[in-house]
Design brief:
By secondary structure, the protein is of the alpha+beta class. The protein folds into two domains: 142 residues, Metallo-beta-lactamase, Chain A, CATH 3.60.15; 212 residues, Alpha-Beta Plaits (2-Layer Sandwich). It contains twelve helices and 15 strands. The strands form two sheets. The protein has an eight-stranded antiparallel beta barrel with strand order 1-3-2-8-5-7-6-4, surrounded by four helices. The protein has a seven-stranded mixed sheet with strand order 9-10-11-12-13-14-15, sandwiched between helices. Strand 10 and strand 11 form a beta hairpin. It is elongated.
Length: 403
């Protein structure tokens, strides 16, 4: 869990940067949210019928499925696996809502017309129904991730309790802290009960490889892999690519509040919050003493507020540029630890042109290092320019001043 600890020197900044915990459901979430069911369909398309099937689903299928009450989580094509297979997941309030949808479609002439055109395009179809576990991470409707790994764990029923206890109390938190964006676990309520499903969302395959390599190099990552191996008989993964038609309809009113700001989510920074138009806040895990930092987009450059923890400077700089469109060129320190100087030097080598700090912060940072005089550290103890010339303020309050 992230928590906020404000010092006198940085209370204004920390007040801006305090974040909540991971995105798993809160303990007081309404029971109705846990009653939701998710229908998953595997659809096998005849090899020469793909484009025709896509057009039919987009123009006739999706409007009918939505009119019946279904809410689409995603519709994907398989890139690694059966190349002529689609996978789609739809959310319903409960099984009674799905029964109502079946009744609606069964009596709808438009659906019968749609089925008559669809079935000749198919080689087969199968489905199952899923429910989220008690502490699962809920899916985003019309999931915008560019790549999804669909991962099925086959867990003997006698081990499922221990498996879920590990995953919900330790595993999911570890995955999020390591930069992954999992969804689930989904338990199978109609189908093979031994199957538990997770979705892992990525912006690129290169990102996936980087996260896995970094995860497997840690003791925590190796422990996660050992524990999953202890509980599972088999793990199957497939690489999914969103279908071109898998997007929300114009004027979508699904109530998915996260979707409009999805582009501001970060696989590198799982506890990222966009505070205002140009201000971003980041929280870090317990093992980094629940530290906070932030960054601000100016007209020509980005300003980093305090040091990120557990993230390489090069990766963080790329992520700041991706999110703001600006390269980080200044670092404002509200505080510093005695061992932070190597990290500051790493940021200077990465492109930081100026470090702004109070006299006390500079003293803690550099100590008696004789080479410190050569570093681009500007001391300020009053109003000072940070980022744009139109924005001024002390380091500990510059986030508020730059909003």
């Amino acid at each position: 869990m992230l928590r906020c600890v404000a010092s006198a020197a940085s209370s204004a900044l920390v007040a801006m940067l305090c974040l909540g915990g991971a995105s798993a459901p809160a303990a007081d979430e309404p029971a109705a949210a846990r009653a939701k069911v998710y229908g998953e369909w595997r659809i096998f398309i005849k090899p020469d019928k793909g484009p025709e099937y896509d057009r039919l689903i987009e123009t006739q299928g999706l409007p009918l499925f939505r009119e019946a009450g279904g809410r689409m989580v995603g519709w994907w094509k398989i890139l690694i696996g059966n190349l002529y297979e689609h996978v789609t997941i739809w959310e319903y309030d409960d099984m009674a809502a799905f029964e109502k949808a079946v009744g609606f479609l069964g009596g709808e002439k438009r659906f019968a017309f749609f089925v008559a055109k669809r079935d000749p395009l198919l080689a087969g179809e199968e489905n199952r129904f899923l429910r989220l576990s008690a502490e699962a991470i809920t899916p985003t409707l019309h999931d915008p991730a560019k790549w999804v790994i669909h991962e099925v764990h086959r867990v003997p029923l006698k081990l499922r309790g221990m498996y879920l206890d590990y995953l919900e109390t330790e595993g999911l938190k570890l995955l999020e802290e390591s930069g992954f964006r999992p969804v689930g676990p989904f338990l199978t309520s109609v189908g093979k009960w031994s199957e538990t499903t997770l979705l892992f969302r990525f912006e690129s395959l290169a990102e996936r490889e980087r996260l896995i390599a970094r995860f497997n190099a840690t003791e925590e990552g190796r422990r996660y892999n050992r524990r999953i191996a202890e509980f599972t008989e088999d793990v199957t993964t497939r690489l999914l690519l969103p279908a071109a038609f898998a997007k929300p309809p114009a004027g979508d009113k699904t109530g998915n509040a996260a979707a409009p700001n999805e582009q501001f989510k970060s696989p590198l920074l799982p506890h990222l919050e966009r505070v205002s138009q140009r201000v971003f806040a980041v929280g870090f895990a317990d093992k980094f003493r629940s530290a906070n930092c932030g960054f601000v987009a100016g007209s020509d450059e980005a300003v980093l507020i305090d040091l990120p923890r557990g993230v390489a400077a090069a990766e963080m700089a790329r992520e700041v540029e991706r999110l703001t469109g600006k390269i980080p060129r200044r670092l404002a320190l509200t505080h510093a630890d005695a061992d932070d100087l190597p990290t500051v030097k790493e940021w200077i080598a990465q492109g930081i042109r100026e470090v702004i700090a109070t006299p006390a912060t500079r003293a803690r940072l550099v100590g008696d290092d004789p080479a410190a005089s050569k570093l681009p550290i500007r001391i300020c103890d009053g109003e000072t320019e940070i980022g744009d010339r139109s924005n001024t303020g002390r380091p500990e309050s510059c986030l508020a001043d730059l909003q």
